[in-house]
Amino acid sequence: MRTLGSGLVLALIAAVVALAGKPAASPAARAAASKAAPQASAGQMEASAMNTFSSASEVQALLAKAKAERKEGQVLVAEHILSLAPYTVNLEYRPAEGAVAVHEKEAEMVYVIDGGGTLTTGGTVLGEKRTNATNLSGTAIDGGTMRTIAKGDFAIIPEGTPHQFSPANGLLVLMTMHVPRPAGGTQ
Questions:
Q1: Does 164 map to a domain?
Q2: Which residues pair with 137 in a beta bridge?
Q3: Distance between CA atoms of 178 and 162, rounded to whole angstroms?
Q4: Residue 186 covered by a domain
Q5: Which residue in 15, 85, 151, 174 has a CA-CA distance of 20 to 30 Å to 6?
Q6: For the domain that residue 159 is a member of, what is the CATH number?
Q7: What pTM does this model have?
Q8: Four-CA torsion 36, 84, 176, 172, nearest 10 degrees
Q9: Displacement of CA 84 from its chain's centroid (Å)
Q10: What secondary structure letter does DSSP report for 182?
């Protein structure tokens, strides 16, 4: 469990570093935003946008919930672990190989909580289709780099990079966090 705690701490540090590179809004932009949308109360903000701690036992309970809720043939069950707007950290229970994904506007940070398998990145997406305005999916990757992943491993998948997870022995549990590129491009 100490490894899980270290992983979550590192994930939150990465989020803070990403936020630190984000330029602050000008006073005029803040004033316009406050006129455009009503402000949430501190209680509403806390409930909806901030959940900054999750114990090891809570994460294990989320994993048990994901396993129990999985339907036959479902390749992924996601459960929310943490949030600090605009970031969310999810537990992904992946008992079967999933589709190829490409996130065009955000990187994805991954920590293997349990199990293992293969992470394939790069290459060309086969059977590509658009799933929404900023994401693509596909059926396979041609020419990507395959890496064996196991409990305790970390990966950052840059935005625009095709990637696919294939569990070994039906067990791959990930912590994932999508990280938008800060305004102003690369750092």
A1: yes
A2: 101, 129
A3: 14
A4: no
A5: 85
A6: 2.60.120.10
A7: 0.74
A8: -130
A9: 13
A10: P
